[in-house]
Design goal:
Helices cover 26% and strands 28% of the residues. The strands form five sheets. A nine-stranded mixed beta sheet has the order 8-7-9-10-6-11-12-13-14. A seven-stranded mixed beta sheet has the order 17-18-16-15-19-22-23. It has helices spanning 74-80, 100-113, 127-137, 152-162, 187-204, 225-229, 276-280, 328-341, 367-379, 405-414, 444-451, and strands spanning 2-10, 16-17, 33-41, 68-69, 84-85, 89-94, 118-122, 144-148, 166-170, 207-212, 232-237, 244-252, 260-266, 269-272, 291-298, 301-313, 321-324, 349-355, 387-389, 392-393, 399-400, 419-423, 437-441. Helix 4 packs parallel to helix 5 (187-204) and helix 8 packs across helix 9 (367-379). With 452 residues, the protein is α/β, with parallel strands linked by helices.
Length: 452
């Protein structure tokens, strides 16, 4: 018999409890528990009907290379780790209006031109609305089929009958199962729908794109168990009122994590930015104090960024510190190091730090660039615009080594920069052809004496 039971789920992490609690023991968030009814099988129906599998030795497992095919977007293929893998689940999250549906529809357009069967399932838009967006993007092949449905059982039946190579679910929060009494988008419904699509992907070899809504904090709505169930998690970042978009990989079972792809939104949809470093540095002012070029690593890709700082006298008793694109606490820590080691009176000044281009970077390698930008604005002296900076700064003012220094220097040299300031301990392991001048510094005092 089926027995109904009332349980409480945490909307953030999916923690299950028999009673309501104010704070979740799993994620330590407040007021996240919701009441839901679950149906469990009792008696002989819930008994196991098949024999348990036997463990297999590691040496007896045969390796098979996963089948990949291109999406038509090299930037997306780079983020996915080399292309689309058959039988995988990819979760795409982002703010409303950021371009998730537009990107996936363009991917469907590219795949359909290669005669790959694609099924686009929408639970939020009608067929006419999708048609209007498709007319703006361009011509489509008949290999793309559309379906407007939110019932999980119906979607399951259609996918098993049509057997497409790629399926898009837009969005996972709108899909519901009749076997669960809770409303669509709840913890139980999202977990049940994702589990069903995972079985279809692994059983039939279908690649799924799942669109996920995000909360006001910028994370995928629903339980975090959704991110654990899928193979790849992609986040679409950027201001929807600006033209650029950044697609970031935060989980990937088939490639490197923390890879990014840069796109630009136009009249006909999203277009790729082939040179992100040049795109981020476009519009950089010349001979302006407080502007420094830094190099950050996004996965395996080096990207040059412009770090801006503005330091001015405070009109209030407590100075104001603001950071956009980086951690404010890290900026406060670096300014405390400058006050202690260089005896700069920054406690009387307001400080504003900005990473131009809309990037969000928390890598310690930006420390040296942030420090020199702050000092450059404080002393109103310009830094050489053809020099790139990277290095981590410790509490005693020392400049520490960072990873992938050679790749950072090669990216700066490729874009025409003539100088690079880096940690002194990294010079011995780097060999260049002489096209760029390398300057190693051991601490902040030495960097200021040589550059400002």
């Amino acid at each position: 018999m089926a027995k109904q039971k009332t349980v409480f789920f945490c909307q953030e992490c999916g923690f299950e409890s028999s009673k309501w609690m104010g704070q979740c023991p799993g994620c330590r968030q407040w007021n996240t528990f919701v009441e839901e009814k679950t149906t469990r099988q009792t008696g002989s129906q819930g008994a196991r009907s098949k024999e348990a599998p036997k463990p297999v030795a590691l040496s007896a497992i045969e390796m098979t290379c996963e089948e990949r095919f291109t999406s038509g977007f090299p930037e997306l293929d780079h983020v996915l780790g080399g292309g689309i893998v058959s039988g995988s689940l990819v979760l795409v999250g982002g703010d409303p209006g950021i371009g998730k549906s537009t990107l996936l529809l363009q991917v469907c357009q590219s795949l359909s031109r290669e005669r790959i069967d694609v099924l686009y399932i929408s639970g939020e838009e009608s067929l006419q609305q999708i048609k209007l967006r498709a007319k703006r993007i361009g011509a489509f092949s008949d290999s793309l089929t559309l379906l407007c449905e939110t019932n999980l059982e119906t979607i399951d039946e259609v996918i098993r009958r049509e057997k497409p190579q790629v399926a898009v679910i837009d969005s996972i929060q709108t899909v519901y199962s009749e076997a669960i009494t809770s409303s669509p988008g709840s913890v139980s419904q999202v977990r049940e729908a994702t589990g069903a699509f995972m079985q279809l992907a692994k059983g039939l070899g279908i690649m799924f794109f799942l669109v996920g809504h995000v909360t006001k904090e910028g994370v995928v709505a629903g339980p975090r168990v959704l991110e654990h169930m899928v193979d790849t998690v992609l986040y679409f970042e950027g201001d929807r009122h600006a033209s650029y978009r950044i697609l970031r990989s935060v989980k990937n079972r088939f490639g490197s994590t923390n890879e990014i792809g840069v796109f630009e939104m136009g009249e006909q949809g999203l277009s790729e930015v082939e040179n992100p470093s040049e795109f981020m540095l476009s519009g950089k002012p010349k001979e302006a104090s407080g502007c420094v070029t830094a190099c950050s690593m996004e996965g395996t890709r080096p990207i040059l960024l412009e770090v801006q700082a503005l330091v001015c006298r405070s009109s209030f008793g407590i100075p104001r510190r603001t950071a956009a694109g980086t951690d404010t606490n890290r900026v406060n820590l670096l300014m405390a190091v400058l006050e202690k080691r260089l005896h700069l009176r920054l406690g009387e000044c307001d400080a504003y730090v900005n990473i131009a281009g809309g990037m969000k970077v928390n890598e310690p390698a930006l420390d040296l660039a942030i420090v020199l930008a702050i000092i450059s604005s404080y002393k109103d002296r310009c830094v050489d615009e053809k020099t790139v900076f990277f290095g981590e700064i410790g509490l005693s003012g020392e400049v520490r080594a960072v990873s992938m220094a050679k790749q950072r220097i090669q990216e700066a040299q490729r874009l025409g920069f003539t100088g690079c300031v880096l940690p002194d301990v990294s010079l011995d392991s780097i060999k260049t052809d002489g096209g760029i001048h390398l300057l190693g510094v051991r601490n902040v005092q030495e960097a200021v004496q040589k550059l400002l």
